[in-house]
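Protocol step 4 of 6: record predicted structures for both targets in the notebook before any analysis. Target 1:
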Amino acid sequence: MNTTKRTMIWKRGLCAALTLLMLLLSACGAKSDAPATTAAPVTTEAPVSTTAPETVPATEAPATEPVKTEPPATEAPTAEPTEPQPTEPTEFVPDPNWPTGSCGDDLTWYFDAKSGRLTIVGSGDMVESDQNHSEDFGVTSPWQEYREQIKTISLPEGLTSIGNFAFYDCMALTSVTIPANVTFIGEEAFGHCKQLTQVTLQCGAVDVRWDVAFRTCVRLKEFVVPTDNPAYSSVDGVLFDRAQTKLIYYPFAKTTRVYQIPDGVTKIGEAAFLDQDNMTGVIIPDSVTEIGDNAFAGCGKLKDVTIGSGVTRIGEDAFLSCDLSEVTIPETVREIGAHAFGYALYSKYISKSDFVIRGAAGTAAEDYAKQNSFTFVAE
């Protein structure tokens, strides 16, 4: 009995031991599986990816930076092509189908109707004035047939004169450059060029009446003069001599209402402001000693004039047909030309009966007032 109990107890104990052993073995199996999964991260090539940054230090970015400094070296060659450019304008090859003809002993003209460009080649004087008048005067210029189509003009460096009425009535012409060797510009050479806005002067001293050569150029706004020009200069488009002591010509289409003549100017040239239609006032500084003939004639809107104390001469017709009702004349003035003040011209001179002259008693101002029956007010 006791032996049987012991046997049973022993078997139960053995079973319990085996069960415990099985549990232990299964537990060990589970643990061995878990490390296997963690081993995968160990084998992850994350460290390999970290080696990639190690190649970053080897970035050749610095090596490419010197390449960026190379473009400046290429800038020098780009400037080289500009050197031969001055020779380009001398290369002119006319189309055999273009209209052409002679306009001087050694001058030939060509007209490109497609571009509207009139080109003159050669050297010397343009044809005489009696062969260069406009159609209105009974004689035609060589290119008169094409004058309304001419948009640009190319004049040769060897040109020495521009004849009377040469480009009269070239209604589409907007600008022109006068070459360096021109010494004469004829009567109304650019007259009635109503689209002409700019004139560039490369020439030196020229025999010309500016107001006549550019008569009725109603859109002319400026003269352009290179700084190395030996005879002329320009300030705000107004033409002066090189020293800027003489105001030569004030473009017709300038829109300044009250113009202050620059200090240092000593003479206002003949017809310098002739027929200027925008100006309502002018201030003449003390540096000016002479106001030329017809200087402000035809300035129909000019109402106010200040004459500086340095003026000694006021030319004939100086302020003819202006809108002045009175003027103060300094006592320094010694000479006043005929019809200088107080007159308009309509086929004949007509005086303004109510015109007033102010100035010092016993001076040229009082004499002029008495001679022309104007009211004189002593100041």
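Target 2:
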Amino acid sequence: MKSLKDFNKDEWKYLGLWSQPLFSAYFWMHWRDGAFAQNFKIRTDYKEHHTIIANGHFLVNKKYYDKVGRQIKEKIKKKDKKFLSEIDFFVREICREGEEVIGGLDEVSLDNFDSFVKNMTRLNSAWYFFAIWSYLIEDIVTEIASENGLTFEELYSFLPQEKTLVMKQHDNLIKIKKIIRQKRLDAELENGNLIKKLNNFPGLEKEINNHLDKYSFLGIGNFVGEFVSLKDVLADLINVDVNLVSSKRNKSKKTSKNLDYYVKLAHTFSYGRQYCAEYFSFLTFKSLPFLKKVCSKLDIKYDEFLRLSPSEIIKYFNDSKGLKSVIKKRSGDFIYFLDENRNVFIIDSKKVKRFINSVIYKKDDNSEIIIGQIASGGKAQGRVKIILNPNDFKKFKKGNVLVTGMTTPEFVSLMQKSVAIITDIGGLLSHAAIVSRELKKPCVIGTKIATQALKDGDLVEVNADDGVIKIIS
């Protein structure tokens, strides 16, 4: 595809809206450069362009998706557990090496920036692989579950409970909340006075500070947001349910060897997807001091930096003359695709908005119903808040219905406060599905249109037992 004139809507699979700046979109566009799939002899260098991102609206080429998908299916047909263990190994190695390299960045140099880009691209290569082809895995696993007389939810109960950073963070909040309860400080927490009295309880203060040291990165997503603060942790603690029990794993019922493989398959893709998402946030957090030094070197603001792609920053790194004029032309609106691996940006706001209007799914104006996929059962009613990125977090209140493109680790604090969760993007192995099950929150995923069809303040009824959202007023 060399221009928008070559775009044919029927050739593309629209996934939904996942808000992000152009800088972050680069890593999704260049996922092949990270060579994750190639480790398993899965070819990805087809001539079809694989992805288009327009202000976060995500489209994947259907032919490309099918060509890579067929290779994954062939791997799965062989039921080779070595394939799954190798996936798991490579993911952990990529994250470990990324943390080692990016955590050590200090000196502002072109070599260091290039190293940052390569490591984040490598990590996102794995994340893209899991996020995009998880849909394929869900279809396969759901079919196998059905053949064994199980629903996907019943199959999920067989999955090993390997906790990700987000789950560990939530467990730690429950531990801290129990300490607060033991010390009879619930009222102080609720009325906001605990922050002034923490130094009177050194043990509790130490626990909270340790929590901040480990999990303050959870306020960052797609290079946007703020570190989690003490005030944020105390607000989260108000919403933590100490009686919440994690989803039970079925240890009593034995499964066949055939089903065992598919349980392992679902776990590998589910855990890998969450692990990559969390590490991308974590390494973003680790890299921010370095990236802000790069901004100083280029004499630009951080929000201006995010309107550029890493390849443009590399181009202007040692001579920023002309960079300001590039930034000046950018409002933040963009369509991003590749032409034979060349970055193509369309930044004309009118063209971007016309393109988005032509590709997004639209709700029937006469219908008050939105349909999605069941992720976590239950029913709830509440006022909608559309949250597209961490900059929107401040408007979310306890008891709201969280509506977003796709949840990632930084959304967990809002998920805890919500009465229900609705997403555009996502499947049964997605972050929203897994975390909502652990939090026991009604959740409907994969609506494709919720962020467009709903607006702040709408009163909705979420029936997550049937995957239906009804607009009441």
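Step 5 preliminary note on target 2. The radius of gyration is 22 Å. Residues 379 and 463 are 5 Å apart (CA to CA).
Proceed to step 6 after PI sign-off.
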